[in-house]
């Protein structure tokens, strides 16, 4: 499988999960190209600004770039444990673009996932999944097999 | 002015700002009907689930109701200081629906606003505003005058 994948995780709302983002991104590479690899770049800056290039772009340019990548992608994978406006925004835009969506939530964190994210699950092309890291391989495999099947179906 | 207004604030991601939401909602009533008044309802529950009716709906029903109200509204006002997936999601959907948007952010909180929210500001129908509570009356007045003018222009 060789998909173009849009990964979302919290940047300015908190980098507590940056290590997990990095590990998910590294697993996603088995399934294709991660268009937003910068989300995983670990950093020491207090603000959570991740990498040099990000700092050189204006917010409006970041938005333009991300929407362009979102339109380009064949699937969106979001880690949604850390509440983030940006991640919510990206998921909202991806729903309208009818992209296959996988949202990954760790209940072990004790947080409660937004009803608007939980509520878009449809067991088809939008999957909201409670996970622990040891489940990730199976969850990703299952999701991308679905994406594959949907693409084959659409080609017919 | 008598607009149908969609107000967004964090629910499950944290109710620290619930009192501010309530005060904003009470100011919004000067400009019309707030379709999502339940966002301001103060509560004592740890989870931040605000009111009885909300608790009776499934997440999928909450999502359906909110999208219906979003389509119905003439303007969206969001308090975006507390990072929230749900608020980000609503803003993303509202952008696609071409609704006039006002996002209110309090820099005094020491947080940094998402680039994807900051980046949609266009000085026209999408306004991202750094505010303190004493500015609110002027900010809302200015925004709804813009909405009014846009509606009049569209009628012509
Ligand atoms: Ca929420």
Q: What does this 3D model show about the protein?
A:
Two copies of one chain form a homodimer. Chain A has 156 residues and is an alpha/beta fold. The first copy, chain A, is 42% helix and 15% strand. The first copy, chain A, contains six helices and five strands; from the N terminus they run βαβααβαβαβα. The first copy, chain A, has a five-stranded parallel sheet, with helices on both faces. Chain A starts with a strand and ends with a helix. Residues 44-50 of chain A have low confidence and may be disordered. The structure holds calcium ion. Calcium ion (CA) binds next to helix 4 of chain B. Calcium ion is lined by residues 10-13, 84-86 of chain B.
């Amino acid at each position: 499988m060789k998909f173009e994948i849009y990964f979302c995780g919290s940047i300015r709302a908190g980098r507590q999960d940056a290590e997990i983002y990095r590990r998910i991104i590294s697993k996603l590479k088995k399934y294709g190209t991660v268009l937003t690899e910068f989300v995983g770049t670990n950093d020491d800056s207090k603000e959570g600004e991740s990498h040099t290039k990000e700092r050189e772009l204006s917010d409006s340019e970041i938005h333009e770039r991300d929407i362009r990548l979102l339109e380009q992608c064949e699937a969106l994978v979001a880690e949604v444990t850390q509440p983030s406006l940006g991640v919510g925004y990206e998921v909202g835009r991806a729903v309208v673009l009818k992209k296959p969506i996988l949202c990954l939530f760790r209940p072990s964190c004790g947080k409660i996932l937004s009803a608007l994210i939980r509520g878009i699950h449809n067991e088809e092309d939008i999957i909201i999944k409670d996970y622990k890291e040891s489940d990730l391989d199976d969850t990703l495999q299952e999701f991308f097999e679905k994406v594959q099947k949907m693409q084959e179906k659409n080609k017919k």
